[in-house]
């Protein structure tokens, strides 16, 4: 079978974009429930889904929250949004545009948007990198990485999550000892909504196996010694046998950006 022509690929892309636009136009808006209501939902679900069952959990999410659901994706891979989109096509997928990403991460983001049934929402900080440098000095990530993450990740995400009832993350228990007790469903007090971790009991190998089985896009850095991918200045390759997150903020007393703590 011959490869599609440039014109055919272009038409396929236009059709994909039209389908996304039609879906967004047809969404039915409803009011966001109160924090007390959502907290009660989270408490009940945390017991019901204490043993995981990814598909059952995400089917419930689609019915309970619909498109007041957001997926957080770092674009290390597209497994999480792929799993979610099977139950909630064109789900909003939040990408933290920190201004410090590897080129491979931005390329993965663009490839995911152009090929998958999801809606990328770029979450940007209030200041550009240049504006932040002017106020705090260059390379803030070296001198005060916690503040840099707060400004470029935590605050923008918190503001964006205010429009949703639930957010889905790819946090896994095997990421690090700090994440070993990650629940499948919990109440996120800091952000005021339900937090769902459907891949909590997956291993890194299971993520890769799923990607291979379903032809899901992977960030090429995963095959270049980066099992955990963050901002380029704060991420290094991981040696064999090291903790998967050992390459994040290496040499600093920091292992989390603050999104999940």
TrEMBL record:
Recorded metabolic or biological pathway in which this protein acts: Sulfur metabolism; hydrogen sulfide biosynthesis; sulfite from sulfate
Keywords from the named record: Cytoplasm, Iron, Iron-sulfur, Metal-binding, Oxidoreductase
Enzyme Commission designation: 1.8.4.10
Keyword Iron-sulfur: yes
Residue spans of biased composition, Basic and acidic residues class: 7-24
InterPro entries named in the record: PAPS/APS_Rdtase, PAPS_reduct_dom, Rossmann-like_a/b/a_fold
The protein's enzyme class: oxidoreductase
HAMAP family to which the protein is assigned, alphabetical: CysH (MF_00063)
Function of the molecule: Catalyzes the formation of sulfite from adenosine 5'-phosphosulfate (APS) using thioredoxin as an electron donor.
Family, per entry: Belongs to the PAPS reductase family. CysH subfamily.
Matches recorded under NCBIfam families: cysH (TIGR00434), PRK02090.1 (NF002537)
Protein name: Adenosine 5'-phosphosulfate reductase
Originating organism: Aeromicrobium choanae
């Amino acid at each position: 079978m011959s490869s599609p022509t440039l014109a055919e690929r272009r038409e396929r892309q236009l059709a994909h974009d039209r389908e996304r636009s039609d879906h967004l136009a047809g969404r039915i808006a409803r009011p966001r429930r109160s924090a007390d209501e959502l907290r009660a939902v989270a408490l009940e679900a945390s017991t019901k889904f204490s043993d995981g069952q990814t598909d059952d959990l995400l089917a419930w999410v689609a019915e309970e929250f619909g498109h007041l659901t957001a997926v957080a994706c770092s674009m290390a891979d597209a497994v999480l949004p792929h799993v979610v989109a099977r139950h909630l096509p064109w789900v909003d997928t939040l990408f933290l545009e920190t201004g410090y990403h590897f080129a491979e991460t931005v390329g993965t983001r663009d490839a995911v948007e152009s090929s998958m049934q999801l809606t990328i929402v770029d979450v940007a900080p209030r200041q550009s990198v240049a504006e932040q440098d002017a106020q705090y000095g260059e390379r803030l990530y070296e001198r005060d990485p916690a503040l840099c993450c707060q400004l470029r990740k935590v605050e923008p995400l918190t503001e964006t999550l205010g429009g949703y009832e639930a957010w889905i993350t790819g946090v896994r228990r095997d990421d690090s000892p700090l994440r070993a007790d990650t629940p499948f469903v919990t109440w996120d007090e800091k952000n005021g909504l339900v937090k769902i971790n459907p891949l909590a009991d997956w291993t890194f190998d299971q993520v890769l196996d799923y990607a291979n089985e379903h032809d899901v896009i992977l960030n090429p850095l995963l095959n270049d010694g980066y099992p955990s991918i963050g901002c380029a200045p704060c991420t290094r390759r991981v040696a064999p046998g090291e903790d998967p997150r050992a390459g994040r903020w290496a040499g600093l007393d920091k292992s989390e950006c603050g999104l999940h703590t």
